[in-house]
């Protein structure tokens, strides 16, 4: 599961409730029971220049794909040799959804 925050957001705080609960970390694993998933939250560049232009959005989308590739490469040696076959669930908030769409 890949999470991408909105423009004024933060890779953790966007998904955090007032009581400090970060639902992807604290609630999601328990609700999935025995299903093994990896949850990863992407922090992109949030400057005005990097998000208001199509080039900036493209750059953030490319950064997302590169970071995801590196995450999968890093985890490949951990007994999950078929990680490249696994599905990705994308969750984006606001601008994060636009970045995901551009990445796809």
UniProtKB/TrEMBL annotation:
PANTHER family: PROTEIN SERAC1. The lineage of its organism: Eukaryota, Fungi, Dikarya, Ascomycota, Pezizomycotina. GO terms for cellular component: endoplasmic reticulum; membrane; mitochondrion. The keyword Mitochondrion applies. This is DUF676 domain-containing protein. It comes from Apiosordaria backusii. It is found in: Endoplasmic reticulum; Membrane; Mitochondrion. The keyword Mitochondrion applies. Gene3D superfamilies: alpha/beta hydrolase (3.40.50.1820). Its main location: endoplasmic reticulum. InterPro entries: AB_hydrolase_fold, SERAC1. Keywords: Endoplasmic reticulum, Membrane, Mitochondrion. It comes from the Eukaryota.
């Amino acid at each position: 599961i890949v999470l991408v925050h909105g423009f004024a957001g933060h890779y953790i705080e966007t998904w955090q409730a007032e009581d400090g609960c970060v639902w992807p970390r604290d609630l999601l694993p328990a609700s999935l029971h025995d299903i093994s998933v990896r949850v990863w939250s992407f922090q992109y560049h949030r400057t005005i220049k990097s998000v208001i232009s199509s080039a900036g959005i493209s750059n953030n989308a490319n950064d997302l794909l590169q970071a995801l590739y590196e995450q999968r490469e890093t985890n490949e040696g951990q007994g999950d040799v078929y990680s490249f076959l696994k599905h990705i669930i994308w969750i984006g908030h606001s601008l994060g959804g636009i970045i995901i769409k551009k990445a796809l």
